[in-house]
Specification:
Mean pLDDT: 97
Radius of gyration: 23 Å
Shape: globular
Low-confidence stretches: none
Number of strands: 20
Structural class: alpha/beta
Helix content: 40-55%
Number of helices: 15
Length: 461
């Protein structure tokens, strides 16, 4: 099973580093060590866990430059966004250091003739299968509350960010967490399905979480179901950005550019389908296209760069296919539509108009710099178009009447609804999806309790 993993700089297409993938013996040793560390960590008082999490926030800030540089090199994230990703992780650690003990505190229940309470106790060792698009934040979003709750972590990060995975493993130790409590598994892509299935079945693994594709999520969720283990799946998205007739068009268009092209469009929670009322469609489209054409594409190491390369060449090919199939089905190309000539995996920020159900750019998740515009005749039509998707992660509604926006949002299925704001995750609020966007929640009280045993105590008088 042993082989090599080579990471590649997507801005140049050139190799970065090579790692020897682990064989079965290495994986077994890692699991046993992690299991032992997890059992010990579960006995650490919650206040002490909170102190380690607070130290983690400081350690993240101390190592922010190195972590950001790794994200830039391994997946092409513009450096300003990479730095923001690390700081957001530190803020999340700050939040749980303050709030975690209270969330995990025993909840007393009044019953006659007995003392009763509900306790939130550690689940154990959790397998985390994480994606490449936010190499630091995706891991920290799960890991910080999971560690706060007293769990251990086996991290299977995406192979193209192996350097980031190993750096995070070291970071937890530097922050004072026990060795092996967070273990990065170095597994070749060809071995991942078999190894992951075996780990889910392993009695030392208490639960599993995955952020990634629907195909991977279906496999992991099915394996967890067979093993009767808790799973949390954060999968794909095709979020609607709905602009109603009374919206501030210029404000909405400026927000739409940020919502679609952040992280070069490589985010499950990026807005992807822009459903615009016909009364403002022409003005919105003109303002949106102007904003897209003004985006600065280039070297992700430069602070001025807004759109970097796609993380892999196959992802660029997938965007090209979605553009071509949509245009063939009747969409109009308003901007972009082609790879950028030269080295690296760059693709021009692209806008398609006249899209709708039945087109690749509207029906599929578009994981890259591609925006699909659709015109709605009225609010009812906007609801129909926004909800015409197998996904259900986020939703953004723009209107001068907030109550109208909330009312419309209630008619569209999603895990989060934002009115006059771009969809984003926040440690104070639960994050997760519905339908093919997955199940379970990360962040807030819901996220920290996902991987706990909600245990009832009843002590008779």
């Amino acid at each position: 099973m042993s082989s090599h993993i080579t990471t590649v700089n997507p801005a140049t297409g050139q190799p970065l580093a090579a790692y020897e993938a682990w064989d079965g013996s290495c994986i077994e040793t890692a699991v046993e060590r992690a299991h032992t560390a997890s059992r010990s960590w579960a006995l650490v008082p919650v206040e002490e866990r909170a102190a380690r999490v607070a130290r983690l926030a400081r350690t993240l800030r101390e190592h922010a430059g190195r972590l950001a540089d790794l994200a830039v090199a391994e997946m092409g994230k513009p450096v300003a966004e990479a730095a923001g990703e690390v700081e957001k992780s530190a803020l999340t650690a700050d939040h749980y250091a303050r709030r975690g003990p209270g969330i995990l505190a025993d909840e007393r229940v009044s019953v006659e003739g007995a003392e009763a309470w509900v306790a939130y106790e550690p689940a154990g060792l959790v397998l985390a299968v994480m994606p490449w698009n936010f190499p630091v934040w995706q891991v920290m979003r799960f890991a910080i509350p999971a560690l706060m709750a007293g769990n251990g972590i086996l991290l299977k990060h995406a192979s193209n960010v192996t350097g980031s995975a190993l750096a995070l493993q070291d970071l937890f130790v530097a922050a004072g967490f026990p060795a092996h409590l967070v273990t990065a598994l170095v597994i070749a892509d060809t071995d991942v399905p078999q190894v992951t299935a075996g780990l889910v079945e392993d009695d030392r693994i208490a639960a599993v979480t995955l952020t990634g594709s629907n195909r991977a999520g279906a496999a992991v969720g099915a394996a967890a179901g067979r093993a009767a283990k808790k799973s949390v799946l954060e999968l794909g998205g095709s979020d609607a950005f709905v602009v109603l007739a009374d919206a501030d068009v210029d404000r909405a268009a400026a927000a739409a550019v940020k919502a679609r092209f952040a992280n070069s469009g490589q985010s499950c929670v990026c807005a992807k389908r822009f459903v615009v009322h016909e009364a403002v469609a022409e003005d919105f489209t003109a303002a949106f296209v102007r904003g897209v054409e003004n985006l600065r594409i280039g070297d992700p190491r430069k602070r001025s760069t807004q759109v970097g390369p796609l993380a892999r060449d196959d992802l660029r090919a997938a965007i090209q296919r979605q553009v071509e199939e949509s245009v063939a089905a009747g969409a109009r190309l308003l901007a972009g539509g082609q790879p950028v000539p030269g080295d690296g995996y760059f693709f021009r920020p692209t806008v398609l108009a006249d899209t709708g159900p039945g087109m690749a750019a509207f029906d599929e998740e578009t994981f890259g710099p591609l925006a699909a515009l659709a015109v709605a005749q009225d609010d009812e039509d906007a609801v129909r178009l926004a909800d015409a998707t197998a996904f259900g992660l986020g939703l953004s509604v723009w209107t001068a009447d907030a109550a109208r926006g909330v009312g419309l949002a209630r008619r569209i299925t999603s895990g989060a609804a934002f009115v006059n704001a771009v969809v984003a995750s926040d440690p104070r609020l639960p994050f997760g999806g519905t339908k093919r966007s997955g199940y379970g929640r990360e962040l807030a009280a819901a996220g920290i309790r996902e991987f706990t045993n909600t245990r009832t105590y009843w002590v008779a008088a």
